[in-house]
Give the backbone structure.
Amino acid sequence: MADHITQDIYVIVLAAGKGTRMKSKLHKVLHPLAGKPMIGHVLDNVEALQPKGIFVIVGHEAQQLKDWAAEDGRQITWVHQAEQLGTAHAVQTALPFLNETGAKPSSKVLIISGDVPLTQTSTFKSLCQVQTEFSLLTQVIDNPHGYGRILRDENGVVTGIVEEKDATSEQRAVKEINTNVMVLNKSLLEELLPKVSNNNAQQEYYLPDLVGLAAEKNEPQSRVEVIVAPNDWEVQGVNDRVQLEALERLYQRNYARALMVEGVTIADASRIDIRGELKAGVDCTLDINVVIEGKVVLGDNVKIGQNVRLKNVVIGDNVEINAFCDIADAEIAQNCNVGPFARVRPGSKLAEGARLGNFVETKNAVIGEGAKINHLSYAGDCEIGRETNIGAGTIFCNYDGVNKHKTIIGEGVFIGSNSSLVAPLNIAQGATVGAGSTLTQDVPESALAVARAKPRIINGWKRPTKKN
Ligand code: UD1
Ligand code: MG
C-alpha cells in the first residue's frame, strides 16, 4: 500500500449530541483523557493527515467547544446542527460547508465522532488508502451491546449495518461492530445521504445506513471495504464516566508498556499516569504513583521515587528525585538529588550536583553547581553560587508585600540555620552568615555577618513563683 494519499482529505467530526450520560455541565468531548480533552486527541490524530478542512458538528454547549478551540489555537470550521435528527443528518448539515471550501467530487471525507478519542492516524490512513470509494472501520468485540452490527452475506460481503434497537436476536448475536468511522468519496456521500430515511426504531437519520445503500448499488467502485481496527482501544467510545476511566487506564497501560519496551523500569504499570509526554533515556526507574504532566525529559539513569509529580521538567543523567516531590517548569542538571518532600516551582534551575532536601521550596531560583539547601527552606527569586550551603530553615524574604526582589549569593557562601535574607540582597563569595540572622544589608566577600540579638546570661536566675 502506498503511504501517500493522493486525494484531498476533509474531516467531519460529530459532536452535536447532548452527552446526557456524562451527567456534566462540561461538554462531553472536553472531558480530559490523559490530561487532554478527548476532542484534542481526535484533532491531533486527524491533523497529522494534513486535511484540507476539519468540520466539527456542534449543537449542545457549542460555545464551550469554541472557547477551548480558540485558546488551543485549533483551525476548525464549526457547523451548527440546530436539531439532532441523527448522525446522517449531522453529516448532511456539513456538506454545504465542504463545497464552499472547494472539496472535489473525488475528495475523501473522513467521518468520525468526537467521543472516540484514540483512533490512530495510521488507521485513518489505511481507511483513506482503499481502492474503492467507501471504507469502514469495524472491530470484533466480545460484548457488542449498544453498537450497530455489521451484516454480511454468505460470501462475507458486507450488506449493511443494523442498529441494536432495530436488530433481530440473530443480528444481535453478531460480534462485528460498526465504529462509525468511515471514509467516502464526496460524490458518493452526496449521492447516498439524501436516500437515508428515518424509518427506524429511533426515528433518526442513521449514518450507518450509507453502508446498506452502497451495497445495494452493487458497483465495484462503491463496494464497502472493511478495515478491522488494529487495537480495540482505538474504537472505544466514551458515553459515561465509567467508560472514560476504562479508556484512561487502557491508554496509561499502553504508554507504560511502550516506556518499558524502550528501557524504562516501571514499578507498577497500573500506578503511573502520563498526562502529556515522557521521554526517558536508558535505565530510568519510576516508582509507584508518578504523575507526568506536559513535556518531561529524563536523561539516563534517573530515579524517580514514589508519589512524585513532574510537569514540564528537563532532568539530566543520574538524578535522583526522592518520594513526594512536586516539580514544575524546572530544569535539573545531572547528578542532582532532590527531596523527599521538595517543591520545585517554576523558574527553578539546578546546576550539576545541586541538592535540595526535605521541605524545601524553590521558585525562580538558579542554584549553582554542588550548592545545597538541605532542610526546611524557602528560596524564591534568587541566584545561589556554586558549593554554597544554605542552612536549615533559611527563608529568602523576596516579597515586601507589593514587589518581588532578588537575592544574589556568591560561591562558597555559608548561610547559618534559621536566617531570614531580606531582599534585595547581595552576599558575596566566601561570606558567612551566622545562624538566626535577619539580614537586611549586603555582605562583602569573605566577611562574617551576624544579625541577631546577643544572648544575655543571668546566673542564678529565679523563676517567678505561682500566686494563688
Ligand atoms: C453510533 C452508530 C452505531 C455505532 C456507534 C459507534 C448511528 C445511528 N449509530 O451509535 O452504529 O456502533 O455509533 O460508537 O450512527 N451526533 C450528532 N448529531 C446527531 C446525532 C448524533 O452530532 O444528530 C453525534 C453525537 O454527539 C456523537 C455521535 O454523533 O458524537 C454518535 O451519536 P450517538 O447517538 O451517540 O450514536 P451511537 O448510539 O453511539
Ligand atoms: Mg455514542
